Amino acid sequence: MAEAHQAVAFQFTVTPDGIDLQLCHEALRQIYLSGLHSWKKRFIRFKNGVMTGVYPGSPGGFMVVVGAYLSYNKYNQLDPSQAVNSITRALLLSLPLSLHLSLPLAVGGVLVGTGLWVSIIFVMRNVLKCLLSWHGWMYVQHGSVSWSAKLWMVLVKVFSGRKPMLYSFQNSLPRLPVPPVKDTCRRYLESARPLMDDEQYARMEGLAKDFEKNLGPRLQWYLKLKSWWASNYVSDWWEEYIYLRGRGPIMVNSNYYAMDFLYVFPTSVQAARAGNAIHSIMLYRRKLDRAQIKPVPLCSAQWERMFNTTRVPGAETDVLQHVNDSKHIAVFHRGRFYKVWVFYDGRLLLPREIEQQMDRILNDQSEPAPGEAFLAALTAGARTPWANARVTYFSRGKNKQSLDAIEKAAFFVTLDDTQQRYDAGSPVASLTSYAKSLLHGQCFDRWFDKSFNLIIFKNGTMGLNAEHSWADAPIIGHLWEHVLSSDPKMSYTEEGHCCGEPHPNLPGPQRMQWDIPAEVRPLITSSLSVARTLAEDVDSHIIPFSDFGKGLIKKCRTSPDAFIQIALQLAHFRDKGKFCLTYEASMTRLFREGRTETVRSCTNETCAFVRAMLPGGLNFAECLKLLKDAAEKHQSLYRLAMTGMGIDRHLFCLYVVSKYLGEESAFLKEVLSEPWRLSTSQTPLQQVELFDLVRHPEYVSSGGGFGPVADDGYGVSYIIVGENLINFHISSKHSSPETDSHRFGGNIRQAMLDILALFQLDKKSNK
């Protein structure tokens, strides 16, 4: 009970002699340090706000401009006081004679200099916006850089200022353009052609032309109006209707996962791995709060909700709840929930001190309260029952306090009782178990509503499970790269513990208290049943493809992404004997508040290549030509998607407007009801400088994955690691007779090898 006594700042008793007041100096000291920490954070945020607000200018630039202007006036004996308005001059005249003769010159100089500085900022910001609106650099041939691209890069660097911060580019980013309806309909029909017979295509062509002529222009007018008024005409509707209004489980269907190192196991001590990982994540949050993460000219808005964020369920739509700061994390172990403070003495806990806290939780032998063990299953099931239970049973008393502790935590941690790891002796089974554990676990040991869950397994392996609505995978991937790259630098003792010493007076974790009524337990059981049915249906397969990587693909003078996407089309046709609508995620963060766009990878050119590769098809030379045509077409579609000329987000927003207007469109309804039977995504390695894969090739990330989008389809995520490794994460459903993740994995491997063979690199090297 020592920590409970320390939490009380003062005690008093009433005696016949008066009031006996006893102050706890340690508690008062902690209150003082906590307040000091909060004020420092507020000051840093205020300073960052000022720096971002005047970007690409700076306070130093203000001093230079104003100083130079005053010096120029003094040298040329100019009087800028005419720029001071009459009110200011009247105030100056009330000053003593010795001051009001010279002060107007100084004040006028400062005011005019400030105006000049603001004008310079305005010009620089708009020039930078024009530069960032030019996307010609994307069309430069691979391996060469044109003079226009070189000049563009120099100008962007010049107009970006000396030290841009994370959010500095936000006000200089262009708005996402609204494509013409005619172009969107034309490109849609082009993407649909290989998936339809002549009769189906003729019918869809008629619907598209009717939409383009009649309803389309009216809907487009509203979208144009929104694009002028809002920062981004897509993102708010995409977040609300695609994510937050979904009433099904977010586990598997929406959340995704990220894995640990594939071949390296830094420590087998669970608490130690948690200590280093949690400390590293909190250091990243500090850099994020100070906007010190290295910026690029892309939208950074998604970073704002990485920490201290929870998806709160609602009856019809969920909401994202974000608090500015949180000094604790929520930890789950063996059915119990804990609140763990990560700050003490006004500073962040060191890794060894966090390990100490995790050890206390692991050594706690207490039993879960009635209903507590499976409570988190509510976040794994359907959203409406969880929303109703939350309002009815978790809106008051100790339940509300404990729920607040979870929802306002920086993030959620699970100390998992299972052991997961890549096993060279059983690679397929071990990676399948690992992926499924990260994706859904036991359905009650992850708080799926949190922005992300850090999962530490019993043998020291770790991973992430991330909620999707607040941001896309590259954002959480940036954090995960920081954590993985920091782990070897923090190091461990020979026994596997974090370096350093435990804290002698550190208050222990606080066990959360619950009073879960008997009426809510059937709801928990029902959600758990729904979640387990969904989890057991997931057919997962991970392939560390090490036959070759981007090193050899580059020698083929082909885009690695296009190479892989075409291989996926070939593999899918061999797997199912037909083509399907294919989703490849592309980012639109070149624009303000941009998120994603779809690249429809199943094209006429790709289908022609796939048919040529079938038995009895064309020869090597003809197949190679078709492959290059398909790769060029894929690159063209990717560029269009990244530059705001994709078709799917535009069609989605037109559909939303039609619903608001009460208009029915057979064309839009049919387009948006088409299932994505092959959903793919590349996980980019963004901070290459953090990993020296030449000297330490073993420090490779396994990447991450997601659940299948369609009941009879595949989900494929892949990460290109270094020069010689590509990791594929494949998912489907056992319940579908059409799919088999392991069979599809074999087809992907063979397709990759068959496409590489077309280039006959072995013969070229012999020559």
Automatic annotation (TrEMBL):
The keyword Acyltransferase applies. It comes from the Eukaryota. Its main location: membrane. It is a multi-pass membrane protein. SUPFAM superfamilies: CoA-dependent acyltransferases. Gene3D superfamilies: 6.10.250.1760, Chloramphenicol acetyltransferase-like domain, Choline/Carnitine o-acyltransferase, domain 2. PROSITE patterns: ACYLTRANSF_C_2. Coiled coil: none annotated. GO terms for biological process: carnitine metabolic process; fatty acid beta-oxidation. The keyword Membrane applies. The active site is at H468. Pfam families: Carn_acyltransf (PF00755), CPT_N (PF16484). It is found in: Membrane. One of its GO terms (cellular component) is mitochondrial outer membrane. GO terms for molecular function: carnitine O-palmitoyltransferase activity. The chain crosses the membrane at residues 50-72, 101-124, 136-155. Residues 176-749 form the Choline/carnitine acyltransferase domain. Keywords: Acyltransferase, Fatty acid metabolism, Lipid metabolism, Membrane, Transferase, Transmembrane, Transmembrane helix. Residues 1-47 form the Carnitine O-palmitoyltransferase N-terminal domain. Belongs to the carnitine/choline acetyltransferase family. This is Carnitine palmitoyltransferase 1Ab (liver). It comes from Gadus morhua (Atlantic cod). The lineage of its organism: Eukaryota, Metazoa, Chordata, Craniata, Vertebrata.
